[in-house]
Amino acid sequence: MIRRSIAVTAAAVAVLATAACGEPQTRGDAGDSESSAEPVTLEEVQEAGTLVVGTEGTYPPFTYHEGGSGELTGYDVDVAEAVGEELGVDVQFEETQWDALLSGLTAGRFDMLANQVTITEERREDYTFSEPYTYSNGVIVTRSDDDSITAFEDLEGTTTAQSLTSNWYGMAEEAGAEIEPVEGWAQSVDLLEQGRVDATINDRLSYLNYQEEENNTNIAIAVQTEEQSRAAMAFPKGSGSLADAVDEALAALAEDGTLTELSEKYFDGDYTTSEAATAAGAEEGSGD
């Protein structure tokens, strides 16, 4: 149950607005993780016949394996595959931990990321983004018996569990929290239940999907942002022709209803536009 939904502080809003396998195929000499990859063009992808997509594979309902070890699936996986079909190319997924996705993109390991990458002004300096395909609110999750956190200001002096390169990490740090590094949502929940951290900030859709599966009464949403995060496909900086083509593909998928169908499949609501996400959240909240 959502105990309180409030606007984030000005600082937290700023962070949200400006801030989760083998050797994968590359388009050439990628260099090390500190190098800058050459832009990937639509022509290169079409000539190769394959779009190499970096994804986490451990972040339900966006990108995960059925039963933990089954086929790769999820909302982002399905959207990326639909984009590939629009472009007329195969999609090859390369899985790695969240904290290695952006550095892998910089190093040229992937043509594109499909992993709920939030658009921020800081990231725009280093990467090219598509138009958003998911809109969602952030939430602070605490133990259900803890009423001490009712605003982002209350995070000061607390300990939160966060992936180090996520925009949620930046929000927690800006609020004055100590950060316990984790690899993903499941580890955050474990630490929270064990009392080793006070809270975790994450995507509301991830929390809702988790609760649908687990019905964990030990944790609850303490605070929800009114600002929405915007998730998009990410590309090496300067990959304008590929990003433009993906934008056209996403527009076609929105026009024919595919994006809405995929959103409703995984979230029981349409979170593909800001207006639809606001409406879906309001409808869902009325049932709390």
From TrEMBL:
<feature type="domain" description="Ionotropic glutamate receptor C-terminal">
    <location>
        <begin position="50"/>
        <end position="269"/>
    </location>
</feature>
<feature type="region of interest" description="Disordered">
    <location>
        <begin position="23"/>
        <end position="60"/>
    </location>
</feature>
<keyword id="KW-0732">Signal</keyword>
<dbReference type="InterPro" id="IPR018313">
    <property type="entry name" value="SBP_3_CS"/>
</dbReference>
<dbReference type="InterPro" id="IPR001320">
    <property type="entry name" value="Iontro_rcpt_C"/>
</dbReference>
<comment type="similarity">
    <text>Belongs to the bacterial solute-binding protein 3 family.</text>
</comment>
<protein>
    <submittedName>
        <fullName>Amino acid ABC transporter substrate-binding protein</fullName>
    </submittedName>
</protein>
<dbReference type="InterPro" id="IPR001638">
    <property type="entry name" value="Solute-binding_3/MltF_N"/>
</dbReference>
<feature type="signal peptide">
    <location>
        <begin position="1"/>
        <end position="19"/>
    </location>
</feature>
<feature type="domain" description="Solute-binding protein family 3/N-terminal">
    <location>
        <begin position="50"/>
        <end position="270"/>
    </location>
</feature>
<dbReference type="Pfam" id="PF00497">
    <property type="entry name" value="SBP_bac_3"/>
</dbReference>
